[in-house]
Amino acid sequence: MRKQKIRGTRHELALRRVLHGRGYRYRIQFKVPNMSRRTIDIAFSTARLAIFLDGCFWHGCPEHGSIPATNEGWWRDKLHGNRMRDCETTSHLAQLGWTVLRFWEHEEVSTMVPKVTSALSALSDRKSFAAASERC
C-alpha cells in the first residue's frame, strides 16, 4: 500500500492542468485549518474553495468501490472510517466558511471544470458584493 499515490494522481494533474491553463492559481496539498494531518488537494485559499479528488477504492465510491475479500472486517472498518473522516473534514471546512467540492476519480475533467469555475465565480461575486456593502 505504500506505493499508492497520495498526491499528483492522474486525474488531479489533469484537473490542475486545465485550471492553470485557464488562468486560475491555486495551492496544492493545503493544510486544513485547525485539523492536523489533513490536506486539501486543490485549494483556492482567498476564495475559500476546497477541492477534493477522492479515489474510488479508498473513499468508498458507490459505483466502483469494493471491499477486499481478505480481512474483510478490517477493510470494512477502515473504508468506513475514511468516509467518516471525509464528512468530518467537509463539515469542519464549511463551519470555517469554506465551500467544498468533492469529485470521484472516475469523473471526467470536462464535468469537473464547469463546477469549479462556477463555484469560483459565485464566490468572487459574493466577495465583491460584501466588499461593496462594507463601503456603504
Summed up, the domain count is: 1
- CATH fold-level name: Endonuclease, Chain A
Termini separation: 56 Å
**Major pleated sheet:** 4 strands, mixed
* Helix vs. strand class: alpha+beta
Explain the overall architecture.
By secondary structure, the chain is an alpha+beta fold. The protein has one domain: Endonuclease, Chain A, CATH 3.40.960.10. Helix content is 49%, strand content 17%. It has 4 helices and 4 strands; from the N terminus they run αβββααβα. A 4-stranded mixed sheet has the order 1-2-3-4, sandwiched between helices.
Task: Give a quick set of tags describing it.
136 residues; four-stranded mixed sheet; alpha+beta; disordered C terminus; Endonuclease, Chain A
SSE diagram, text form:
Elements: H1 10-21, E1 27-31, E2 39-44, E3 49-54, H2 56-59, H3 72-95, E4 99-104, H4 109-135
Parallel strand pairs: 3-4
Antiparallel strand pairs: 1-2, 2-3
Task: Summarize the structure in short.
The chain is an alpha+beta fold and 136 residues long. The protein has four helices and four strands, in the order αβββααβα. It is 49% helix and 17% strand.
